[in-house]
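WARN retry 2 of 3 for item q-0093 after timeout on previous attempt; input resubmitted unchanged.
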Amino acid sequence: MTPRDPLPFDPILRAASLWSERIGPATTMAAVTSVMRVQQILLSAVDALLRPHGLTFARYEALVLLTFSRTGRLPMRVMGERLQLHPTSVTNIVDRLQADGLVRRIPHPTDRRATLVEITEEGAARMEEATGAVTAVDFGLIGLDGEEQAQLTALLGKVRHAAGDFD
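OK item q-0093 returned
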C-alpha cells in the first residue's frame, strides 16, 4: 500500500479483533505489529531522504556518531558498542563509508590491535546535508506532536531497558 492508496480500515485492529475471537487477548500482538509497521514506514521515509546523499540509515548513524565524538574518531569496537551492531556489520559500514571518502581508518596511537575510524571533511559535510534532509521532516515521524514523541521514546525505552539494551 502506498500513502496514496490507504486501506478503508486499520488492518492491525482488524487482525486484533480476529485474534481475540480465535486465539485470545490481542493487546500485545497489536502493539508489536504496530511497532513493526511503524518501523517499516520510518525506514522507508528515512531511506528515501538519505538516498540522494548516498547514505543508508546505518551509514548515516555512523557518521553522526563520529561527529558526536570529541575528536571525530572512534575505535571500531566502540562504534559497534554505541551503534549496537555486530563487529562484522560495523566493518561493512566503515568499508562503504571509506570507499566513498567519508571516513578513513587510522592506526590507534597506543593500541596496535585497534583501528580508529575518523570522519573526513567530506563525511562531515555529507552528514550535515543529510541531517538537514531528515530533520526537515522529523525523520518521517508524522502524526505525533513533541510531547507524544517524548512519550513514545519513554515507552520504547522501557522495552529496550527490559530487553537489556542499557542499564
